[in-house]
Write a structure and sequence with these properties.
- The complex is a heterodimer of chains A (about 110) and B (about 110).
- Chain A is mainly β and about 110 residues long.
- Chain A has no helices and 11 strands.
- Chain A is globular, with a radius of gyration of 13 Å.
- Chain B has strands spanning about 5, 10-15, 20-25, 30-40, 45-50, 55-60, 60-65, 70-75, 85-95, 100, 105-110.
- In chain B, strands 2, 4, 5, 9, 10 and 11 form a 6-stranded mixed beta sheet that branches. A 5-stranded antiparallel beta sheet of chain B has the order 1-3-8-7-6, with no helix packed on it.
- The radius of gyration of chain B is 13 Å and the shape is globular.
- Classes of the chains: A mainly beta (about 110), B mainly beta (about 110).
- The interface between A and B is medium-sized, with 25 and 23 residues.
Chain lengths: ~110, ~110
């Protein structure tokens, strides 16, 4: 039981490049979410999903896309990276109304 | 819009002291409240989850309380140790949209 896994751990992008942050969970959780963490601003919700095929926007969705084709996977796509997207990204999963489990994070730098 | 505030922003205490971290939220329509610990450069570790119908939860030296009507939660740490040094985050799961809203955290340093 690996819990929530994220890849890569670190990534450096140039402005305008695109990439996908991967997230997977093996706990059969229906809820999955992506957050970004910036100094002094806490964690902010980017996108979330309440089940396969269902996604919705969080607090800061602009510049990001998600899809949920399976229960296990919830990738986050950066369409055209900007320096403002330099952050630490966390994926989380849970059952409805239950404890949230977080992945180890991806540290992204956009130059 | 739900807002979560944590006080104090930073706290430094000598080893062995009992301490209280505070969390307040503006909307009482929540499913639950969760306390997390985050070490520098690491992910979030769940400490305690309190459902909206509960008043408190305990795990070892940690005790968390919830007063939903007043929008407050406290995390009590007994007999603090240097290994407790970390950032402590409070988050509420809101009913509308079933999303988690975080406070900015309290940075705790326990001096030996």
């Amino acid at each position: 039981n690996a819990g929530v896994t994220q890849t890569p751990k670190f990534q450096v992008l140039k402005t305008g490049q695109s990439m996908t942050l991967q997230c997977a969970q093996d706990m059969n959780h229906e809820y999955m979410s992506w957050y970004r963490q910036d100094p002094g601003m806490g964690l902010r919700l980017i996108h979330y999903s309440v089940g396969a095929g269902i996604t919705d926007q969080g607090e800061v969705p602009n510049g990001y896309n998600v899809s949920r084709s399976t229960t296990e996977d919830f990738p986050l796509r950066l369409l055209s990276a900007a320096p403002s997207q330099t952050s630490v990204y966390f994926c989380a999963s849970s059952r409805q109304g239950d404890e949230q489990y977080f992945g180890p994070g991806t540290r992204l730098t956009v130059t | 819009k739900q807002e979560v505030t944590q006080i104090p922003a930073a706290l430094s205490v000598p080893e062995g002291e009992n301490l209280v971290l505070n969390c307040s939220f503006t909307d009482s329509a929540i499913y639950n409240l969760q306390w997390f610990r985050q070490d520098p450069g690491k992910g979030l570790t769940s400490l305690l989850l309190i459902q909206s119908s509960q008043r408190e939860q305990t795990s070892g030296r940690l005790n968390a309380s919830l007063d939903k009507s007043s929008g407050r939660s406290t995390l009590y740490i007994a007999a603090s140790q240097p290994g407790d040094s970390a950032t402590y985050l409070c988050a509420v799961r809101v009913v509308y949209g079933n999303k988690l809203v975080f406070g900015a955290g309290t940075i705790l340093r326990v001096k030996s």
